Amino acid sequence: MSGSSTRRPTRQQAAVAALLERSSDFTSAQTLHARLRESGDPIGLATVYRALQSMVEAGTVDVLRTDDGEAVYRACSTHHHHHLVCRSCGRTVEVEGPAVESWADRVAGEHGFSDVTHTLEIFGTCAACATTST
Amino acid sequence: MSGSSTRRPTRQQAAVAALLERSSDFTSAQTLHARLRESGDPIGLATVYRALQSMVEAGTVDVLRTDDGEAVYRACSTHHHHHLVCRSCGRTVEVEGPAVESWADRVAGEHGFSDVTHTLEIFGTCAACATTST
DNA sequence: GGCGATTTTGACAATCGTTCTCACTTTGAG
DNA sequence: CTCAAAGTGAGAACGATTGTCAAAATCGCC
Ligand SMILES: [Zn+2]
Ligand SMILES: [Zn+2]
Ligand SMILES: [Zn+2]
Ligand SMILES: [Zn+2]
Q1: Helices (H) and strands (E) in chain A, counts
Q2: Does A120 reach chain B within 8 Å, measured CB to CB?
Q3: What pLDDT shows up at residue A95?
């Protein structure tokens, strides 16, 4: 069987998945690895990367890049959505915008592009951080 | 007067800027460096990075990250816009969507976020590549 | 429960884009 | 011209990610 890449379930993969479920913000592989170790979960860094990779492929985890190119991961709902992220504390809100979806498809179509996808993230300072820092 | 961070004009910076003007697609620093060298323009890699960095800060060059985290650069118009990029050949079209801009700001505001920015890129297969590959 | 084929793991090395270092060169004001 | 300030570049350093490969875990089967 081809297609679906079902991996054998292991303690390590479960640990990564569980930690992601518990985290509400986008988190880097290195940070996840460090947290798992701290909490007494022995796991190799390469294994964390592999687990994240397969979860991203499976669509159960979203990944995006910070400004300095580091990949950060988050367990999200599986339907299509985007993110509103606090630049300061990392607080993340899932948002949807049907109008944006159709706009992107229409614009791409007008220029003769097919097989269209897009990336869209919104960054700002959340209310909590705004009061704190000022 | 100082104020703005104007850099001293040099042959190398001009070469990077000129090459970017000539390129219609997003290009990596390494590629730009290689092209400059090929065309007989002696220049160091670090200098290419520095030139790109200051142009990005000055707002005369746009930068985005490829899926594998590499930064790619392009000389774009200076007003706010987004990009429609061919996944196959790299052809890039600048696009604008006032509706998207206001949507992003509104959504962020509804969640109490301030100082809002966003990133938005559209990817697809351009007409030329669609016919070629099939 | 035990067995062997197959997959996963993990310590470590390797890769790769990017930044840093620092001696040398270029620039530009006086 | 002269000199201080700014820019350059070869190579070292860096940090995130991926590759390696022997040891360990898993699964289907007896
Ligand atoms: Zn915040
Ligand atoms: Zn969308
Ligand atoms: Zn194309
Ligand atoms: Zn915009």
Answers
A1: 5, 6
A2: yes
A3: 97
Instruction: Name which of A69, A103, A124 is nearest B65 (Cβ-Cβ).
Output: A69
Within B23-110, where are the H helices?
A: 29-38, 45-58, 98-110
CATH of domain A79-133: 3.30.1490.190
Q: Which helix (H) or strand (E) holds A92?
A: strand A92-95
CB A63 within 8 A of CB A73: yes
The phi and psi torsions of A10 (rounded to 5 degrees) equal -135, 160
Q: What is the pLDDT of residue A2?
A: 41
Measure the CA–CA gap between B19 and B36, rounded to whole angstroms. Answer: 8
CA of B14 to the centre of ligand 1 (A): 40
Mean pLDDT, chain B, rounded, equals 93
Measuring CA to CA, which residue among B82, B96, B88, B66 is closest to residue B134?
B88
Instruction: Tell which residue, B70, B50, B72, has the closest CA to residue B62.
Output: B72
Instruction: Please give the residue of chain A at the shortest CA–CA distance from B100.
Output: A100
Mean pLDDT across B38-50 = 96
Domain boundaries, chain A: 1-76, 79-133
Q: How many CB pairs under 8 A join A and B?
A: 105
pTM more than 0.85: yes
Q: What is the fold, at CATH topology level, of the domain defined by B1-76?
A: Arc Repressor Mutant, subunit A (1.10.10)
- pLDDT confidence of residue A5: 57
